[in-house]
Amino acid sequence: MDNPATIAPVQNDCETETSSAWSWWPSWRPTSMSLLKTTESKILACIQNDLWARFVTLQNQYRIWTLTITNKAVRKPVEQVPKTPLVMVHGFGGGVGLWIRNLDALSRSRPVYAFDLLGFGRSSRPPFPSDAAEAEEQFVDSIEQWRQSVGLENMILLGHSLGGYLATSYAIQYPSRVSHLILVDPWGFPERPKVQNQQGQGTDVVKRPSPPRWVKAILAVVTLFNPLAVIRAAGPLGPGLVNRFRPDFKRKFEDLFDDDTMTQYIYHCNAQTPSGEVGFRAMTESLGWAKRPMLDRVRQLPASMPVTLLYGAQSWVDSSSGYKMAQIRNHSNTRVLLINEASHHVYADQPGEFNRVVENICKSVN
Length: 366
Known about the structure:
Elements: E1 6-7, H1 33-44, E2 50-57, E3 63-70, E4 86-89, H2 103-106, E5 112-115, H3 132-150, E6 155-160, H4 162-173, E7 178-184, E8 194-196, E9 202-204, H5 213-222, H6 229-233, H7 238-245, H8 247-252, H9 261-270, H10 276-282, E10 307-312, H11 320-328, E11 334-339, H12 346-349, H13 351-365
Parallel strand pairs: 1-2, 4-5, 4-6, 6-7, 7-10, 10-11
Antiparallel strand pairs: 2-3, 3-5, 8-9
């Protein structure tokens, strides 16, 4: 099968910003940016529509790995106003390859952009500040610089998990650029709950649906190390570790790949020099709660901005935050939808329903 993807030649495919602080990591990890590129190329070969994949250079010279998917088979009248593009932002530890079940379907009637967040996937991996607000700002500023470099006037902005948190922060700072905000199982919205102890003082407790094993494993080390340190520390055992803790990823995509392509992709995305995860750690307090909960700031979104929150009905992320956001916004232009038989990775668990819902949202814009 011919692959329509156009991959721009890259002179320095292993671009990372290496810190000597991490020089002690085992050099025998079976990973490289080249292996990540090879694994990702196998995933992107499934795309049927026209694909343009390239690095977008920001004003600060960092590079953001970017996909643009269009359906040139659809002939549009010259006088028709172009459809607002959909921009998709992945979650923690992810990358553009995870959208493989969605890119073709969602690009049938409008351009779709997906990019690796700064510090993740194939994008540049710069140092991040240890302050939560500054780390968040570095992520958000990179998204705005990316938008300027690509030349988008406005967009339908969709973010999953950490991507949902950053998409909301971006929409607060740059509301004129967001036609509709779609938040998919967003991380970091609620405050860490407190209860009164016998002395009447507030004590931190955690009341949430029990996370799966892989989430518990990350939370167990996040306060001591960077969240994905265990994958790198495992050396040649790292790929097997990902298979053990994330067998669900193989199952979610088993009709596309009958091997370990997707778990290999997850491994290679996360076994590189730590960068974005350093920023995430700075934004996180113990047990994975956000230091700066987003529910405290959603009032800053314009009341006129439409917001849709999509949750997996079986997700470990509590959908009550979505209803609280709707209440805070006086239910103005805010909808909360649950997708049945879907967990945290809604887009992969129920891609047909996810694509249908997102397509309808896009049609409501234009």
